[in-house]
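This part of the workshop introduces the protein records we will be handling. A record pairs a protein's sequence with a compact description of its fold. As an example, a complete record with its sequence and its structure tokens follows.

_____
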Amino acid sequence: MLPFSYALRNLFRDQTRLVQTVGGSALVVLLLISAVALNEGMDSVLSASGSSKNVILVGKGSEESIERSEVHLDAETAVATSIRGLDSKLGTAAVSGEIYYQAPLETESGHKDQALLRGVLEKALLVHTKVRLLDGRFPGPGEVMVGHLAHRKLGVTAADLALGKTVKFGDAMFTITGLFEAPGTVLESEVWFDRNDLATLTQRDTLSAITLRLDQAELDDVQVFSLQRNDLELAAMGEDTYYSKLGVFYQPIKIMTWVTAALVSAGALFGGLNTLYAAFAARIREMATLQSIGYTRFALFISLVQESLLATLTGTLVACLIAYFLLDGRTVPFSIGTFTLTLSPTVIFTGLATGVLLGTIGTLPPALRCLVPPLPKALRSS
């Protein structure tokens, strides 16, 4: 076998080729890391947003979108008094009738963008147990409470949605009195209004949905209630099931992310192969000389793979560093909220595996072309 130092020295023989190889592999790895992180982040926030202990009641025929759902106000009281085994605190059943609305919201700075609005009463905290008030208090009339990632959804700075600031919805101004978190869920990107305020502004006398939290009761009990009360025209589904269906809805976006990454990666990969073909073709006589003094083709192939792996793994390291500084912890807004990009073990392993494959399988075609010619012919090559 050739010494490892031989591959290391050859790596720096052509610095232009080295930069091209490292840069191409870094681009491929970075794109795949980004694609995996995006898909993993979206899946994570959707799966964390739904609780297996929560059940959502929506109007029949509106199971695909809560925003289009209409539920009569009387249904909230009927649910709380008719279904046994619901969770409760201090005698208050964990039943929250809510209004979901997506509309432009304007900040004091004049910036206006789509926001996710939720009209709630204080008992919503009995249902959404991940919500924690970071500062301030729950909103009353003329007030709102914002998730700590709502500014990312609106495209403004956190200071624009600080306590004491005002936001404008329609012709009404609302003071921000609370800041909350709900780690890993879409709730963190929402703006919570007093339910009566939002009902007035949106001119609706119905709820969008009723969310309830189970204790001893089961989903079947809620479904039986919805079937018995045909007058309310309700459909029951688990909260986790609802968000799983949303994941299927966003599947085309995930596929497009992979397709885009694959196309750009293919271009970078073919460019890298051309570079290797040119580099190895210029060394056919060198490889033949080494064979003539006793080194086998297999030993030469291993040396070429080592050389290529050094370059591609260097590119992988560069890509991981770029991803760490530019991607890790960055929040990405999408239609129903935001999600955070994380360099999880799966993402890092994908990057490392890509670098190894580029250095081994990507080296195979140009290396074989360099080593396959018969020794006499190879020695005569220019």
